[in-house]
Amino acid sequence: MIYLDSAATSLQKPAAVRYAVAEAMRTMSSPGRGGYESAMLAADTVLDCRSALADLLCVRDLEQVVFTSSATHGLNIAIRSLVKPGDKVVISGYEHNAVWRPLWGIGADIHVAASPLFDPDAAVAAFQRELPGAKAAVCCQVSNVFGYILPVERIAALCRAAGVPLIVDASQGAGSVGLDFENLGCAFAAMPGHKGLLGPQGTGVLLCRSPDVTPLFYGGTGSQSQDAAMPDFLPDRLEPGTHNVPGIAGLLEGVRWLQKRTCAAVLDHERELLAAFSRRLDGVERVRKFIAPDPAVQTGVLSVQIDGLDCEEAARLLAERGVAVRAGLHCAPLAHTTAGTIDEGTVRFSFSPFNTFAEVFDAADSLRDILL
Questions:
Q1: By residue range, what is the domain housing residue 355?
Q2: What is the number of structural domains in the chain?
């Protein structure tokens, strides 16, 4: 199988990730629940992963790194910490349902700072127009549909100047585009462990600027057990229950691999694969490629539409040829509405650090064979 759906989940991972998960299941119990060897080994692993993430994401204090079960989990914490019913919230035109649905569920007054695809200046101008009166803002670092890198640094500066706390959804950028949490100055940044960070499913990270947060879950933390209230300090305030130690052990190895390879090298490789794939499709008139005029504003994610062929049918035909892709709305109808693709959706090809040029050529040739 040629796996080109890494924007959904990084199926291909460093071998050390698999080994770490299995070893944790064999040797580790629960951190903070005892002083015996298996509990201490678990505690050390959780601390090591927290430290590695802080280093990778430029976080000043380890306590600001909170483990979640997913980016969706973290975004719900961040949104519920900042937003009350009726509050004006500004979001980009490329947000995932993990942002849109929690805001809608709270009853927020959602204002979409819509702007054309691959146009960072327009995105900044749209936020500047919408920010007055806002109680919070949310912006994805990278569109999961189009690989469009939004200008989050410039948007964060606007939010700081306006006194509006910003939540960054770094789901598609962590591990490739990189994130400097300290200098960005956002209130929260959320990301999954199972995409660009190369960890297992069921892991996630929430970076918190302040301990003034609203827990989504309540329960045991191994600290301040005599109190009915949740601890008032991070990360314990947001980490009730038993940690996903095997998942965190695997995530640690994914982060260590990235530290050695570097996010910049991953991004360069994925962009080279995208460019090679796109060139292989040159001359196929039925394929409309959503590719940025400036490669600097796109990651290794390419959406296409095919004249006369439904995107779901195209994905099925590719799957028959051993090519795994994602088709449809990608849980981001807002992005499709903004880009004008809501009626049909797209076929999305997303590349990883483990894909090869041979795979990319074979996938493009498979699509050509279907259409020619």
A1: 2-11+263-371
A2: 2
Q: Are residues 319 and 362 in the same domain?
A: yes
Q: What share of the chain is helix, strand, coil (3-state, %, to 5)?
A: 40, 15, 40
Same domain for 80 and 203? yes
The overall average pLDDT reported for the chain is 97
Helices (H), the chain: 15-27, 37-57, 71-82, 97-106, 120-130, 152-162, 181-184, 245-261, 263-280, 311-320, 333-339, 357-371
Those residues of the chain that have pLDDT short of 50 are: none
Q: Which two tokens stand for residue 203?
A: 């892991």
Q: How much is the pLDDT for 34? A: 86
From 199, 232, 261, the end of a domain falls on 261
Q: What is the Cα–Cα distance from 323 to 360, expressed in whole angstroms?
A: 10
Residue where a domain terminates, one of 261, 288, 303: 261
Show the tokens assigned to 140.
């994805």
Predicted confidence at residue 267, as pLDDT, reads 98
CATH number of the CATH domain containing 347: 3.90.1150.10
Q: pLDDT tens across 206-261, in order?
A: 999 999 999 999 999 989 899 999 999 999 999 999 999 999 999 999 999 999 99
- Whether the CB-CB separation of 108 and 86 falls below 8 Å is answered with yes
212 and 268 share a domain? no
User: Does the pTM of the predicted model rise above 0.70?
Assistant: yes
Two structure tokens written together for 275: 């460019």
